[in-house]
Amino acid sequence: VEIKEEHIESAGNCQPAFFKNIPLFATQFLSESLEWSKFNLKDQKLILNKRDILKIAFFDCWMANEDRNWNNFNLLTNPVEDGWEIVPIDHGACFNSLMFTEGRELVQLSENETLIDTEEFRNLVKPNFKSFAELNEFIESMYLCIPDLEKIYDEQVIEIPQEWNIPKSYSDALKANLFHQEWLSVTKSHFSAFIKSSLQLK
């Protein structure tokens, strides 16, 4: 998208320098959505994609996203036909709040740095699974998607504007870390332990 000068002036809390003379992208504006904190939790039964919050939590652990937790859900609830859908927003704190460098490996999140250790998460997820074995099957299905994401990683990186000045060595190192078998195994192990503890499943 191309940002016009009048848009920058009316943005209020944005820094104009970030938007000038550089290619940008935008996400769709959901005019009727509500921030999670403003959503009436009594209406949780109307959320249609409850299992997606599991996918979001797994993604956050894998990407080391330090900015979606009990204190900052970074979720919208968007009205759709027959109910509401959860929409994740703001991934600017992935890779340990962008602290990843070529010589520094990603660091795993703790349970309270995720959505998993919240009542909202428990209320949405627990009714959908009768046992940890059933939940683990769902975790395996998410884990099996990762090789497909690895295949398209390079294609997506090519789409990043050159003006952003992200070195190829950085994107290569990040790829190596994200898809390294040890990082994937530890992520899966931590995520499963967090879920089991939070939901008290057997």
Which key phrases capture this entry?
202 residues; mainly alpha; 3-stranded antiparallel beta sheet; 3 strands; single chain; 8 helices
Write structural notes for this entry:
The protein has 202 residues and is mainly α. 42% of the residues lie in helices and 7% in strands. It has 8 helices and 3 strands. Strands 1-2-3 form a 3-stranded antiparallel β-sheet. Strand 2 (75-80) and strand 3 (83-88) form a beta hairpin. It starts with a helix and ends with a helix. The model has no long low-confidence stretch (mean pLDDT 90).
How would you sum up this structure in a few lines?
This protein has 202 residues and is mainly alpha-helical. The protein is built from 8 helices and 3 strands.
| Amount of helix | 40-55%
Walk across the major sheet and give the strand order: 1-2-3
Strand content: 5-15%
Low-confidence stretches: none
Q: Number of DSSP helices?
A: 8
Could you give the distance between the termini?
A: 49 Å
Q: Please compute the radius of gyration using only Cα atoms.
A: 19 Å
Question: N-to-C SSE series?
Answer: HEHEEHHHHHH
> Class by helix and strand content?
mainly alpha
Gross morphology: globular
Major β-sheet, in short? 3 strands, antiparallel
- The overall strand count is 3
Average pLDDT, rounded to a whole number, is: 90
